[in-house]
Amino acid sequence: MSNYDALTLKLSLREKFAYGMGDFGSNLMLCIGTLYLLKFYTDELGMPAYYGGIIFLVAKFFTAATDMFTGVLLDSRRNIGAKGKFRPFILYASFPVALVATAQFLATEFPLVVKTVLATALFMLFGLFYSLMNCSYGAMVPAITKNPHERAQLAAWRQGGATLGLLLCTVAFIPIKSLITWSSSAGYLLTALLFSLCGLFSMWWCFRGVKERYIQVLPEGHKPGILKSFCAIFNNPPLLVLCIANLCTLAAFNIKLAIQVYYTQYVLNDIHLLSWMGFFSMGCILIGVLLVPASVRRFGKKQVYLGGLFLWAAGDLLNFFWGSTSVLFVAFSCVAFFGTAFVNSLNWALVPDTVEYGEWKTGIRAEGSVYTGYTFSRKISAALAGFLPGIMLTQIGYIPNIAQSSGTLMGLRQLMFIWPGGLAVIAALTMSLFYKLNEQRFASIIEELSQRKKFTEEQENLNSKEKVSTVNI
């Protein structure tokens, strides 16, 4: 296929939908832990909040390493079968992800130390299998299409799927759990099982519906490794800037998700408001996701990304100062989450562009190393985002299932709005000042890569003819 054909190839709506189902399924299994696992630890297992923070910190640092391992594994593949380079991991790793995601909500009567060790081990095991599944899913985009607009659409479909998964977890988890009246801990377990099964079938749908068209293997003699995955970050300036910005945005997003269940219960005195907030704010995210492709075509990825960060920070600051009622809380949350739609969608649209940049700069195309180098920064961010709420809940004096003090309530408000809003501002400054890979430069890089490939093929053909002539002589 020519360079022009590759850059203009249009994907079918069916394939885009299938790709979106991948992040819908993975988020069903991931977000039940992000949203409710800390509360399960504190309220059902009786752990101190800082124990939960330490569990998140240890397990997420471990899964950051497993992401790098996944990148090495993907780039090491030589014998690519009919299922492709990335799709087999989506198929085979999704089952243990669903199994462990459910097992994390199993309440036991063990001593606190044993509970903590078991919870840490399960969280680490979840991270291992989730890395194999989700890193392969994300790294697959350059193999699906080279068209930058189609990549932006895939990112939008991915974010749409992720948003729907998060929406269902936010809106439906607590009401479904509440239907199981005989045991609160059984409610957590059975609801987690339901969400995990739905996530599993969604991942299988993604596997069947997408196609890898541009499969490349690393040249002989190039051995991928963990160190090279780090080098993929530091030798690739656009990727490094994106990692730093993403470190801020993902930490902000995960802190907000972890704290919102406490905030609605103790500050607004209505835990069921979480479902309403989730319904309206995730609806705003879906609207934002639908607007991403058209916005990118008109303004470019970087400008749309920065606009999303501005809305995010503005919504959080408005909520901190004036979101004292349920209506205003939901309204300002909608503004912030509408902004996150553009940010989170374009995080995934920008990463594939850095693959071509890395190939252009180094001569080596390594989707796995680039993508997992990027997800390494996301896991470090998630580790901090999981650690900080647990530690801060202890610092502000949180005690489960009682009326909280005024100092604790102010601490919850700061964790919910000031920290995420501040991190969004830092991300905006980072991208604004240092990210230089715009659409025009990307197009020139693709053209130069095409010319290099054409030249290499001509040289190989010439060498082949010379060998034939030598044999004939």
From TrEMBL:
Keyword Cell membrane: yes
InterPro entries from the UniProt entry: MFS_2, MFS_trans_sf, Na/Gal_symport, Na/Gal_symport_CS
Main location group: membrane
Pfam families in alphabetical order: MFS_2 (PF13347)
Subcellular location(s) of the protein: Cell inner membrane
Any one GO molecular-function label of the UniProt entry: symporter activity
One of the record's GO cellular component terms: plasma membrane
Topological relation to the membrane, as annotated: Multi-pass membrane protein
Keyword Membrane carried by entry: yes
Transmembrane segments: 17-38, 50-74, 86-106, 112-133, 154-176, 188-207, 239-259, 271-292, 304-322, 328-351, 382-403, 415-435
Gene Ontology BP term (one): carbohydrate transport
Highest rank taxon of the organism: Bacteria
Keywords linked to the UniProt accession: Cell inner membrane, Cell membrane, Membrane, Symport, Transmembrane, Transmembrane helix, Transport
PANTHER family: MAJOR FACILITATOR SUPERFAMILY DOMAIN-CONTAINING PROTEIN, SULFOQUINOVOSE IMPORTER-RELATED
Family: Belongs to the sodium:galactoside symporter (TC 2.A.2) family.
Protein name as it appears in the record: GPH family glycoside/pentoside/hexuronide:cation symporter
Species the sequence originates in: Mangrovibacter plantisponsor
